[in-house]
């Protein structure tokens, strides 16, 4: 145990106490009965922890390459946390993907393990919901009195999500527990439900009245989001132009793939035909879960020992169905490995035929060689990574999501998407959407003009209405409401949506540089091993280390 590692361990322990919802997402045990206090004083305490730890990092001597990297990773993250706190970026935070409401929903859902649920633990967390919502309301009111309110779109979306969560909470204790415990669960769920109802009413009836209609947050706040999610600094207009070029490239590849399936047919017609093709359908949630489980396990068996060395604990992956809207997500194994790595796949109608032609690339992204391998290796790497590095993947989306997209591209290169329908699924369901996100995320927040030559409202400046039309035209895959959910997502969390494609860009460029540097001696498996052993970090640091 070195001084730096001891510091990192203490920081994680203190952070888990101050932010139990984040601890749940990170897989840190010990805070299962609590929820995060989102009140003003607790928010200040988390900021003070970041400042105090940053000073300690600067005052701590490091020895050797591994500690040099570890100190740089921790320093970059803490510096960004301090900058976010000084800008009060979290003071008005209500968003679609990972705001306080979504964190509460996830923290409760992680304890819901069916018959294996620890009901006493779940009871405690249900009882904590009214308090955590009260703290969040106090913070939002403090910001409102200071003239700062989240945009109306985010306020309205969170009110809807609170109402959706009411049904989940009402059904949660059903069929579980008996006697005193069942009664306590029912009472706690009812009280939590009432708190959710009251918070939804506060959002829609009070906060919404002061919420601005303008969604765009501007260049300064956007650059702060870029630091938060990518760990880099960008020339935003140059990146916006690159996003358009990348989108055009992906769409050319889509046209080529579609022509292999139905020569002469336009791409939208081919996509619609694949959706209804029984060769690419599975009916029923249980059958679909079994299908993706088999797909995930097959990739693990094939890749272990060839292009990757997959540790024994990571040869298990749990695929589960989430009865909701949204996108497939991966949750890393817990620190003590009691919770396996899990893919959650959303199904809005579990009884309807489920199209599968886009699924393989997504499973490679979420499973192996994607997040399950990447985050699992990180969790297990106690030899060279300190505890902060092992558990901080949630804080480095550019690194994590960039690897997920790289994994899709790698599996295409290795021949796992040889079926033209599956390759078109990667392009239409993953690559096109992620390129469009660069255009839309930057364009919407900076209200940039649409360039000449794009064939889409050239010269007009981006608005949510234009974004809706653009996504429906180019990326209309997904369940009902998906396009609206995506737009709300971009506008609620500036910089997050561009982490995927720009992260992939850094991974691909680093691999190409290593291949040119090493020539005939380049070994892909060795490159992957070294890259994953570095652990999560910002993209500037990742680029520097992979090309060192």
State the secondary-structure class: mainly alpha
H/E element string? HHHHHHHHHHHEHEEEEHHHHHHHHHH
Strand content: under 5%
User: Which term fits the overall shape?
Assistant: globular
N-to-C CA distance? 27 Å
What is the CA-atom radius of gyration, in angstroms?
A: 23 Å
| Low-confidence region ranges | none
- Care to count the β-strands? 5
State the helix count.
22
Q: What is the subunit arrangement here?
A: single chain
| Helicity, as a percent range | 55-70%
Number of domains: 2
Largest sheet: 3 strands, mixed
Mean pLDDT: 93
Order of the strands making up the biggest sheet: 2-4-3
Description of the structure:
- The protein has helices spanning 3-18, 20-26, 40-59, 64-86, 100-111, 119-145, 152-171, 179-210, 218-230, 236-261, 267-275, 285-303, 359-366, 371-380, 387-391, 397-413, 420-446, 464-474, 482-492, 499-518, 524-533, 539-546; strands spanning 281-283, 318-322, 329-331, 342-346, 353-355.
- It is globular and about 60 Å long.
- It folds into 2 domains: 3-214, no CATH class; 226-499, no CATH class.
- The protein is built from 22 helices and 5 strands.
- By secondary structure, it is mainly alpha-helical.
- The strands form 2 sheets. A 3-stranded mixed beta sheet has the order 2-4-3, covered by helices on one side.
- The mean pLDDT is 93.
- Helix content is 64%, strand content 3%.
Which key phrases capture this entry?
three-stranded mixed sheet, 548 residues, mainly alpha, 2 domains, two-stranded antiparallel ribbon, globular, 64% helix
């Amino acid at each position: 145990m070195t001084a730096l590692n001891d510091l990192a361990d203490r920081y994680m322990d203190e952070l888990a106490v101050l932010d139990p919802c984040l601890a749940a997402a990170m897989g840190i045990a010990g805070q299962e009965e609590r929820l995060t206090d989102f009140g003003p004083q607790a928010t200040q305490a988390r900021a003070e922890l970041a400042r105090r730890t940053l000073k300690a990092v600067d005052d701590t001597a490091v020895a050797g390459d591994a500690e040099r990297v570890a100190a740089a990773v921790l320093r970059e993250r803490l510096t960004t946390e301090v900058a976010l706190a000084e800008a009060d970026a979290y003071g008005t935070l209500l968003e679609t993907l990972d705001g306080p409401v979504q964190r509460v929903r996830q923290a409760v859902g992680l304890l819901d393990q069916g018959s294996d649920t620890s009901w006493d633990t779940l009871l405690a967390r249900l009882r904590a919901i009214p308090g955590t919502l009260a703290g969040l309301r106090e913070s939002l009111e403090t910001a409102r009195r200071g003239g700062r309110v989240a945009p109306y779109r985010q306020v309205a979306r969170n009110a809807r999500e609170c109402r959706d969560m009411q049904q989940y909470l009402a059904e949660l204790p059903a069929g579980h527990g008996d006697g005193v415990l069942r009664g306590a669960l029912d009472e706690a769920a009812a009280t939590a439900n009432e708190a959710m109802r009251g918070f939804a009413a506060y959002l829609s009836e009070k906060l919404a009245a002061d919420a601005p209609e303008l969604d765009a947050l501007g260049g300064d706040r956007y650059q702060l989001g870029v630091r938060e999610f990518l760990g880099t600094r960008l020339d935003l207009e140059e990146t916006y132009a690159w996003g358009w070029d990348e989108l055009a490239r992906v769409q050319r590849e889509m046209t080529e793939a579609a022509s292999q399936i139905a020569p002469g047919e336009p791409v939208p017609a081919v996509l619609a035909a694949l959706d209804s093709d029984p060769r690419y359908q599975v009916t029923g949630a249980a059958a679909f879960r079994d299908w993706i489980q088999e797909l995930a396990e097959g990739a693990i068996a094939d890749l272990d020992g060839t292009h990757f060395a997959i540790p024994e604990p990571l040869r298990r992956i749990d695929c589960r169905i989430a009865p909701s809207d949204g996108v497939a997500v991966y949750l890393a194994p817990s620190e003590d490995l009691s919770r396996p790595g899990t893919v959650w796949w959303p199904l809005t109608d579990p009884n309807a035929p489920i199209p599968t032609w886009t699924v393989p690339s997504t499973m490679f992204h979420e499973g192996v060689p994607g997040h399950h391998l990447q985050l699992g290796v990180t969790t297990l790497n106690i030899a060279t990574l300190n505890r902060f590095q092992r558990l901080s993947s949630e804080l480095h989306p550019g690194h994590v999501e960039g690897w997920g997209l790289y994994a899709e591209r790698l599996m295409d290169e290795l021949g796992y998407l040889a079926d033209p329908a599956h390759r078109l699924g990667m392009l239409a369901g993953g690559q096109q959407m992620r390129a469009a996100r660069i255009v839309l995320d930057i364009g919407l927040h900076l209200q940039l003009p649409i360039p000449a030559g794009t064939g889409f409202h050239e010269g007009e400046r981006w608005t949510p209405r234009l974004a809706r039309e653009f996504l429906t035209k180019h990326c209309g895959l997904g369940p009902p409401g998906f396009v609206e959910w995506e737009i709300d997502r971009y506008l609620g969390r500036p910089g997050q949506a561009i982490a995927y494609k720009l992260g992939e860009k850094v991974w691909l460029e680093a691999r190409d540089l290593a291949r040119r540097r090493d020539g005939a001696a380049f070994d892909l498996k060795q490159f992957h091993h070294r890259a994953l052993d570095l652990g999560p970090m910002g993209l500037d640091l990742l680029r520097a280390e992979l090309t060192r």
